[in-house]
Amino acid sequence: MQAGLNLQQAPPIWVPFRFFLSAPLFGLLAAALMLWQGPELFASRWSASTLAATHLITLGFMTMVMAGAMMQMLPVLAGAPVPRPKLVAALVHPLLMLGTLLLAAGFLLAQPLLLQCAVVLLGTGLAVFFGSMLLTLSRVRNPTATIVAMWLASIAFGITIVLGLTLGTSHGWGTPLLSQSLRDLHPAWGLVGWTGLLVAGVAYQIVPMFQMTPNYPRWMTRGLTACAFIVLALWSLAQGATDWSWLRVASVCLLVAAYGVFAAVTLDLQRRRRRRLPDVTLEFWRVGMVALLLAALLWLSRQLPALAFAQSDVLLGVLVIGGAAVSFISGMLYKIMPFLTWFHLQALPASGMRMPNMKAILPEKAQRRQLRLHLASLGLLIAAALWPALFAYPAALSFGAAMVFLMVNLVSIVRVYRACLQRAVQPDHLSGVAEKPVRQ
Ligand code: HEM
User: Fold this and answer.
1) In sequence order, what are the residues at sequence separation of 6 or more whose Cβ sits closer than 8 angstroms to the Cβ of residue 104?
2) pLDDT of 68-114, one tens digit each?
3) Measuring from atom 19 of ligand 1, which residue has the nearest CA?
4) At residue 27, does pLDDT exceed 80?
5) Residue 186, ligand 1, Cβ within 6 A
6) How many CB atoms lie within 10 A of CB 409?
7) What pLDDT, on a 0 to 100 scale, did the predictor assign at position 3?
8) Which one of 116, 122, 299, 320 is CB 3.0 to 4.6 Å from 172, fit for a cystine?
9) What is the signed CA dihedral for 278, 281, 282, 283, rounded to 10 degrees?
10) Global pTM?
11) Which ligand 1 atom is at minimum distance from the Cα of 183?
């Protein structure tokens, strides 16, 4: 597992952990909002409550984990440590938390002042994160396919944030938008660019390493993310020009093909994996890949007016955000957090104490229970997107339950880490540690 990893340069464990542990809280807030607003939240993509819930998840859950994971992975995968990681985390994490809360509250209460504060806080925090990622990436000597994807994802992140801040300024200060197409470009760069490119790049490294599959084919790792980035840029150009609809349709077809092939190849690699033991992360990723395939087909079908239907916008959002992104991220958390815990415990000064292995740090049963809840909530969210009046409340409740269980699981990892750390510094308590289960 450690092959090719440069673990000595990893930042202190609390740098990524503070981001990872906050994420389910935002998921839970989004669920509470769904419960409060009911069917209205699923009725339209543009309602205030939909925008608030969307950002609680895209910024509070997804970007939160992705930021922590990048700070952790860049040193480990590329040997390029983030400069002053503790300071960067201490700035980015609270600004992202507070900014996201204010943005959601600003949408919900239609309060320009809240939106103005959100724009300032998010603009500052995310600029610090963006700057430190670019600085770190520019120091990588031999960029692998994963690093190229991280470069492209970071640029897509920068574009998402500039567009998001422009839209936020328009909501907060009432400045007119240069073009209405910015309202489509921002979510596209956030989901297809920032999220999609990072997931693809990380998958190239993580799927073969953790899921014991063959490597991704070279033609894919060499070209897919760059092609997707260029096509997304062409699609953006076409959005602004009314008579370029052929380019818009062609670029949607190409993006659908790129992500469809990525999902199909990943599913095939997982089918051919060498180790047949049950693995919950793999199942989360399978769910994510199937949701990605469905989302790609839905986006394609929307290009034909005959196949368009009223709720397809909301359904697309549910499939991409709740289906693909939340599944990938949850699966990743279940690998990264126990692995980092195990790794940092190994690095403790030798105390004669036997440290728990990854399976003891977070037992598979607990992960599987949460996977089942996640699947139920995904099914109900899809149903709520199609029939809001019937399914909005069950969807909210099940999504909230899945987030609570995710939080419980992540906190239990931290408790194991703390317990081992305490025993390592208090040798009196050494006896019995090897035999005693470390899970509290
Ligand atoms: C500085 C951070 C951000 C700000 C200030 C921001 C602001 C906004 C605003 C004001 C809108 C509403 C646009 C309109 O009125 O048409 C919007 C929509 C949207 N944003 Fe963001 N955003 C930010 C980051 C992100 C990120 C990182 C993502 C994704 C990873 C994202 C995903 C979306 C989506 C999906 C929508 C459309 C929501 C819908 O269709 O219901 N945003 N954003």
Assistant:
1) 29, 33, 52, 53, 55, 56, 60
2) 999 998 888 777 889 999 999 999 999 999 999 999 999 999 999 99
3) 187
4) yes
5) yes
6) 21
7) 45
8) 116
9) 80
10) 0.94
11) 16
Q: Report how far apart the first and last C-alpha atoms of the chain are (Å, whole number).
A: 26
Inter-CA distances, 398 with 369, 372, 382, Å: 13, 10, 12
**Is 302 touching ligand 1 by the criterion CB < 6 Å?**
no
Burial per residue of 261-287, b for 16 or more beta-carbon CB atoms within 10 angstroms, e otherwise? ebbebbeebbeebeeeeebbbbbbbbb
Residue 350 is predicted with a pLDDT of 62
Residue of 26, 41, 44, 51 to mutate, ligand 1, most atoms within 8 A of C-beta: 51
- Ligand 1 pocket check for 164: Cβ under 6 Å: yes
User: Can you tell me which atom of ligand 1 is nearest the CA of 107?
Assistant: 10
**For the chain, what are the domain ranges?**
1-142, 312-440
In 3D, which of 166, 219, 164, 214 has the Cα closest to residue 54?
A: 164
Our answer on whether the CB atom of 251 is closer than 6 Å to any ligand 1 atom is no
At which residue do the structure tokens 């990525």 appear?
Answer: 262
Answer for the pair 66, 26: CB distance below 8 angstroms, yes or no: no
b/e per residue 181-201 (b: at least 16 CB within 10 A): bbeebbbbbbbbbbbbbbbbb
Ligand 1: residue of 33, 55, 163 to mutate (most ligand atoms within 8 A of CB) is 55
DSSP state of 80: -
Which ligand 1 atom sits closest to the C-alpha of 123? 1
Q: What share of the chain is helix, strand, coil (3-state, %, to 5)?
A: 80, 0, 20
